[in-house]
Amino acid sequence: MNNILLKEMQLMFKEKANLIYLIIMPLAFIIIFGTIFNHAEDSTITVNVTDNDHSAASKTFIAQMKKIKGFDVKLNHKDVDKQISQIKDGKLNSLIVIPKGFNDQLASGQNKAKISFYQDAAASNETASIEAILKNLSNQYRENQIVGALAKDGKTDEQIKSIMNSPVTIDSVKENSHNVDMMSQMVPGYTVMFAFYIFISVIKRFFTEKESGMISRLQSTGMNPLSYLLGMWIPHFLTIMIQCIVLIGFGHFVYGMHIGSFIGIFLLIVSLAVCGSSLGVALSFIVKNENQGIGMTQFIALGGAMLGGLWFPSNMLPKFAQAIGKFTPQYWAQQGFLDVIVRDIPVTGLWKSFAALIAFGIIGIIIALTRYKAFLRSAIE
Amino acid sequence: MPFLLEIQNLRKTYKSKKALDGVSFSVKEKSCFGLLGPNGAGKSTTMKILTGVLTSDGGSINMFGKDARKNRKAILQHIGYVPQDIVLYEKLSAYDNLVFFGKCYGLDGDVLKERINDVLKQTGLSDRAKDTVKSYSGGMKRRINIAAALLHKPKLLILDEPTVGIDPQSRNHIFDMIRSLKEQGTTMIYSTHYMEEVEALCDEIAIIDNGEVVTQGTLDYLFTEYGRKAVYMESKTNFPTEKLTGIEAVHSHHQGLIIETAAPVDLMEQIIHISKEQKILLHHLEIEKPSLESVFLSLTGKTLRD
Fold this sequence. Notes:
Chain A: The chain crosses the membrane at residues 20-40, 187-207, 228-255, 261-287, 294-312, 350-369. Helix content of chain A is 68%, strand content 6%.
């Protein structure tokens, strides 16, 4: 077995493609997306405003909008119809129009002042926040009206303040906020996702051995089939270990990602390596050829990444997708990593993730052992 | 000379296709035994069964005086198998490949190093040992392919078409290796569909076709028993073959004729006599040398490359 293992390790290190898709690609993903999302707070939403009133009231309204963080108010004097047509064509997301007479309508106190908000239905993510701001501003006008009415009614400032205060106060407390950033989701996410790309390496190796006639030749040396299987399996197990240590280490040392329990992280990596390498071997013995194996790998790695919450938190998925996700090893690996990295859960609290990953690993081993004879037979006949 | 290998009624079927249909032959110790047959005749299947790669559906194999089925592991320690394809790790050096195969055969340490150096010398590739196999020519790869099967000094070396697609220099080198191994007392089974290789290397031959051994014997025996007796002649003008007696068949061949007969010397006398009588100028007249090609043709009714 040691002989096969050493030879496999030699071949692994000589195969540059392994380095690319097991280490360099996930690192590239982490760096690119990390750079993008770590600066997410810098992004602003553009608010296009056409002021047809040019009054003190309209200017106050615009000034209030400008005060709000994250919004870039762009005032223009373009033709409103043309801008609406641009929205229809998808060239403009939204437009706020302050109509002529806004100041007078507001002063009349008859609740007739109207601001029009045109929006592209296809850009609802962006326009929804503008609409929320507008509603908030509208509420402020209403509150001002109430304050005016209460003052007229002879209420003192103290009384008015007391009336206007909400009876409910929201106290927002972020637990573990010191551990949470984009990297704490992204680094384990891409680590887990690319750990399953080991399937390609496993499939390639087994099919190369089969098609080159090596399995056949080794049979003639009296090789023990179980030693051969272990010799081929262990290097891939070790590769996942190295891959995970490099990627998690990169997140920690380069992006300052919190690690939590080192033993917890290490045992999760071991469990993930058992799971990934065993399933990879099992898949090699199920598929009919290398291309089919690569197709299946993409399906498992990408499908599992989406459902397992590797790209975004799984609670953002529909309920049924969340339920399916729990049947993927990626979900349990990711939850385990998040438990350690974000929630600082000690090693004893990670048993569910360990158990799930090892269980997937055992399923892989059982399938591999069941299919192994048929694979060897197909290799020699 | 005692038999090192005796095969009786070996059978193998792949799905519905019969690959071996009662193959029987015996190989004498320290001899080079040729297994000759066209592609798909059953040579590789026979060899894979002998090397423990495949199991047979029936029949018996007695090797080194033991039942091969019951003593598979012990017997495999004494067999070296050179597969038809070049089965090496191309990204590793020849030396690393030999280390790997040596360890597969249970060698290690100084013994392994010594054996690697020996086989590298035998193949003439000592100076290229550290180069990756990928950088080798086809012939060099073939030589390392053989070397990997020699590391454990096998008593029986099984070579499955070891010279396919190589240059004459490497072919000669491989021939020299085989002759040297034979001198050292290694028994060999050499499978090929090249007649000239069998003629050059083998003491005894089994001709295999459609999963059956058609005949087995020494070259002399096969030539005497099945070789075509014929005379080849070329003349300036048409020769009246109808005047010849005792002929069995006449075929055009190159610029002349091959005339089959049971008595080639008598036939030559007749040809000389007629050509003198009719003043026909003879360019060429000889008794045709018997060949395995003609043996194969007479036994199977087809050529090896059919």
